[in-house]
Every structure is written in structure tokens, then in C-alpha cells.
Amino acid sequence: MSWLELLIAIVFGIGVLVFISLFSLVAIWFERKVSAHIQDRLGPMETGGFHGWSQTVADMIKLLLKEDIIPDAADRSLFKLAPFVVLAGSIAAFAVLPFGAHLIGTDLNIGIYYVVAVSSLVVIGIIIAGWASNNKWALYGAMRSGSQMLSYEVPIGLSLLVPILIVDSLSMQDLVAAQRGGFWNWTAFSHLPFALIAFIIYFWASLAEVNRVPFDLPEGESEIVAGYHVEYSGMRWAMFYLAEYANMFLVSGIAATVFLGGWHAPLPFLEVSVETNPFWHNAVGFFWFAGKGFLLVLIQMWLRWTLPRLRVDQLMHVCWKIMLPFSFANILIVSLWVVLAK
Amino acid sequence: MSELKELDIPLGASPEKISRLLADFEDVHGERLMVQMGPQHPATHGVLRVELVTDGEMIAEAKPHIGYLHRCFEKVCENLTWPQIVPYTDRLDYCSSMNNNLGFVLACEKLFGIEVSERVQTIRVLVAELNRIANHFIVIGTYGLDIGAWTPFLYVMQEREHILDLFDRLCGGRLLLNYIWIGGLSHDLPEGWLRQVRDYLDYMKGKIKEINDLLSYNKIFIERLANVAVIPAEVCIQYGLTGPNLRGSGVKWDLRKNEPYSGYETYDFEIPVGRGEVGTVGDCFDRYMVRVREIEQSLRIIEQAVARLEKMPRDDVKAAIPKRFTKVPEGEVYFRTEHSKGELGFYIVSNGKAKPWRVKCRAPSFSSLSVIPKVAPGLLIADMVALIGSIDIVLGEVDR
């Protein structure tokens, strides 16, 4: 690796961290506003003047200044380690997320496989958090999280196989490149209705992966208080929060990449070709990619403020008895389609 | 681990069935864990502590511990003069203080032999039903919260807010009202108040459907509640459950119909009972749905009461209030009313002095809570939350 490549990697790493932090700041404020408007409220209106835009900034300063509380009976080292593992798991997956034609950390030839593998690290962090807190509710949250996330890895993996079958590559950029030329070429719409079903299964299962309603059992407020992060406060708690929002964008970004054309525009003329201007090509690509990601994040928020929570047995029921058979049938049919189309 | 049989519990199986299924799988049981649910738990509706012995997520035993909000209501009553007790009853079930007032006041009036005018009776019915709606809105909203739906809570709180505003204009209080006095009312209806109640009735048209669309008939909500924590009618009667909890189990028992007071017999309304429309009769959904339907019936009663009051000439609502309470008849009395949570009874012993000799309050929440150890075994932790929410307890009333 030459020093230039190293420099690019470092710059991209910093860029991703900045993006995640900025995204979280905006998304937390946005979620407050979305929830408020869904609930017929106004949400933050004071801090910073215009619609309380700096509320999250103020909250972050508050969280930074808060006392760092570690329970006496907690396993100190693991307790401190857990938020980092959770955050690291989600940040690591950003390395292969294609923000634009050239805006990608590294275009691994097993990109999508890497994403699925690395994002599973999160569950280890959550189990560490639940165990190290020495709190029974936290333990419940960790156990729920463990069973839930491991179960939902399966439909996620199976539904991601569908675009892989169609494109015949595991690389993220190859997956995006295959979907160029208008929204009818996007994986979700090119093999109707099977790839669309795969998209829906992926999106639904990814809600469980990131512990969002209706699958927010690991932190079910009214059942197990706050689940695995009940003993956390201050900045450590904020890291869980940051990881949650990073994960929200991550799963939305993957969905956008593999199913919704990635950084391609819905209509071909809305793009700048890479020959005319590489900078604007990437900038416009980033706009479309972030836009699709944000749209899916918005849907996640919308669901969260509308739906109740499933019970733990129903959660497993949905995963193993509904999503899994559908995913298998999907893969079978799409494989046949791909083979016959050749 | 060699002979792990497959444990196949069907979705929404009754607790008995789950216990029976579990009995065959003693060998797969893990260690039991004791968890303290409360007193600072978001879903225990106050300072209730439930001692849970859990087997994984399954509850093996549940023991409610009460007393965190004990304020010696009954003993304090022995040291207060008769009218002074009325505001203290507000604090029993602070979500429906109008109904508390009514229960105590009617007991006292029966003891003292006071007759109030028809207009006062009608106003009492009107405000009691408004308060019942306010109470049921809290139950529905917080129940949504318990199940994990945040938004309906804000919606129903908004509808409730209008009722609190009406009370504010009526007597200056919003939560603790002290409006119904022995022999009358604290204030007459303000000018234009009935008009505002009519506006509220118009505003409420279609709101019940909105709640049903958003929450009641939500697929996930139904899945969470159907067949969960079934309380059969016999168990309800054995444990003294009353009100919506009893009616949710299919028993048509409502004191407003069965032992009418304050002229309830002259109103046209129905008693909604649990029908087991999505599961078994007496499950959480039935108890929830009975409350939603009771709001509709209360609106009907209010409409009739408003129509009557508009025709009645104004009279002095304080006319029947005794000049002084220093000499009251001796004797004892028990009077029960249909409170929003169930049967609120007051047993009062008077020795003719300015203060009662003994006041015993039969609190509906207290009896409702007693059913938890019976029903909880076999439920999941999430179902436990659904059970506590569905029996609608207020700790102010349980502990008194």
C-alpha cells in the first residue's frame, strides 16, 4: 500500500466518522420533529432559534459534561468496552458503503458479505453491555437482543442473496453498477415481484437488526425498563445512541445500495456522467444515495411512532415461520429466473 | 440435553395450556431468577412493586407488594369533619376524582337522609361521566404505551385535556376537583358551560373511530392482547373484580343499571361486555375494548344529561347542604357506586359527632390487583405488562 492510498483511507475514515456524527445530529433532531408532528406536538422549538435546530448539539454537550457513573457491582472493564464494540461494529461496516462512484472506503470483492459479518459485531457489544451492567433488566435486554439479532441475521442474509444472484457479484460497486439507467433497472423493480419481496423482507428484518419498533424488544421501555443500556449514562449512553442512528443509516444505506440503485438517480438524465465532470458525478451520486438512505430512515421513524411492539415469541414466529420460508422460496424462484434468462 | 423434546407452544395459548405444556418439559427448565418489577418501573402505573420469579421470559410466580403510597386515608378520615373528607377522597383515584366525590357524598347523604334536587343529580351524572371518559382515556393511552405504541397516548391525552378544561371552568380544578359536596355542589354551572359540553360532544364524534383505527384494531396490538391473561368470570367474582374488568369477562354487572343511583335509571345507555371478539372472553383485549365502548356510552349519557339541563330552570345547587355538620344522625351506612375502575364502596359509621367514627373504603383497584398472582403464572414478561395495564389500577387507590 502506497502512502497515497493510506492517506486516502485515513481521509475517508475521518469523512465517515464526520458523516455519522453529522447524520446522527441531524437525524436525532429530525426524529424529534417527526415524532412530534406525528403526535400533534411541535417538538423542540427554542434552542438555536429556527425550530430548535441545535437541540441535539446542546444535548450532546450536556451528555459530555455529565458524571460518568459505573455501578459498583459492574464489571468495570467490560462495562467501559461495550459501547465501543457496538459503535465499532456499525462504523466498520461503513467502509464498504458506496456513497458515490469513487466515494467508497474500499470496494472489497466480498463487500456485502463483509457488511453482514461486521454488523453482527454489534450484538456482541450489546451482550457485553447487558452482562457487565450486573442488572437483571439489562441481562434480559441482552438476551433478547442476542436471540433477536441472531435470528434476523438469517432472513437478512437470505434476502441479500437475491440481488447477489441477479448481479452475480458480492462487490458493492458491482451491485450498484448493475442497476444503472433508471429506476426500472433497480434490483427491487427489475425482477418483479420477487426482488421487491426480498427488499421488503430485508427492510423489515433490518428493523429487528437495529432494534427499532416494532422489534425494539431489547430496549423495550415499558417491559424491561431500557434493556441493555439501563445502567449507562452520559457519554457512554450517547455512544449507544450514536450507534443506533449509525446503524439505522447503515441498514438503509445497504438497502439503497443493493435494492434501490445505490448512488444512481431514478431517471438517467438526472445524473452527471463521469466523463463530463467527475466531481459533480460523485456529488450528485452522493445526493441520491444519501437521499434514498434518508428516505428509508424516515420510514423507520414513521413506523416507530405508529406501531406497538411485538412480543418475544411473536418476534421469533415472524422470523422463522414467515420471513424464512418466503426468503427461501424467493431465492429458489430468482435462481431459476436467472438461470433461465441466461 | 440428549432428550430435548420440541416445545411447541401455539401463539396466544392460554396460561393454563402453557403451564400444562411446560409441565412436560421440567427437564428443560433453567434456573429461576427473581426480578423486582418496580417500584420504579415504567409499566407498573405508579409505585407498585411486583416480585417476579421468572423462568427465562416466562413468569412462574408474581407477588404484588403495595404500600408505597399509603397515606392513611381511612384513619385520617376519622380526624376530619364530614365536608373536609370530600377533597381527601379526590386523592384516592386521582384520575377520576369526580367519581370518588360522588361515592363518598352519596354515602353521606344516605346516612344523613339528604335529598338533592333533580338538577343537582343531573349535573352530578354529567360530571361523573365526563370524568369516567377522562379516566378511560388515560387507561387507553397508557395501555398503548405499555404495549409500545407511543403516539395514541398523546392523542387521547389531547381529548382528555378538553375535559380537564371543562372542569377548570366548572370549579377551578383540573385533576383534584372537590366539586360534589354533601348535599349539593361547590359551584353552579358557569354561563355557557353546557354549550361547551355540547361542543365537546361534537368534537368527540369520530374520535373513537380514530382510536380504534390507530390502536385497537392494529394487528400487532391485537396479537399482543388476544388470549393473553384470560380472567374467567368465576375468577373475577371470586377475587372481587368489578367494573370494566368484570364486564370484560362477560358479566353484565353495572351498578348504574343494577342498583341505580342519582337517577341513572332514567338514562338510556348500554353496558358493554367482553365478547371475546379476537380471542377468549376475558382476555386483555376484551378488558381494553370494554373501556373504549364505555366511552361511547358515557358520551350518550352526557348528551342526555345536557339536553335535560338545558330545559331545567336554574336553582340553588347548595340548597340542600346542611348548615352545620356538628350534629349528624348516628348509624352506619354502606353505599357503593360504579366508579370508573369498578365498584367504589364506602362503609361509614357515625356516632353523631362532627367527625365520622370509622370510614372504610372498598377500593376497586385493590381487588383488581389481587388477581395478579392468580393470573400471572405462565405469562411472559411482556404479557405481565399487558395484564397490569389491562386491570387499570391506580396506586393512590390501592394503598389509600
Verbal overview:
- The complex is a heterodimer of chains A (342) and B (400).
- Chain A has 342 residues and is mainly alpha-helical.
- Chain A folds into two domains: 1-65; 71-341, no CATH class.
- Chain A is 68% helix and 0% strand.
- In chain A, helix 2 crosses helix 11 (234-259) and helix 6 (136-167) packs parallel to helix 13 (312-341).
- The longest helix of chain A has 36 residues, at 3-38.
- The two termini of chain A are 39 Å apart.
- Chain B is an alpha+beta fold.
- Chain B has two domains: 15-65, no CATH class; 112-324 and 368-399, Cytochrome-c3 Hydrogenase, chain B, CATH 1.10.645.
- In chain B, 47% of the residues lie in helices and 12% in strands.
- Chain B is built from 17 helices and eight strands.
- Chain B has helices at 15-23, 73-77, 82-90, 97-112, 118-147, 151-171, 193-204, 207-216, 219-225, 233-238, 244-248, 255-258, 284-311, 364-369, 372-375, 381-390, 395-399; strands spanning 33-37, 49-55, 58-65, 180-181, 184-185, 330-339, 342-351, 358-362.
- A three-stranded antiparallel sheet of chain B has the order 1-2-3.
- In chain B, strand 2 and strand 3 form a beta hairpin.
- The longest helix of chain B has 30 residues, at 118-147.
- The radius of gyration of chain B is 22 Å and the shape is globular.
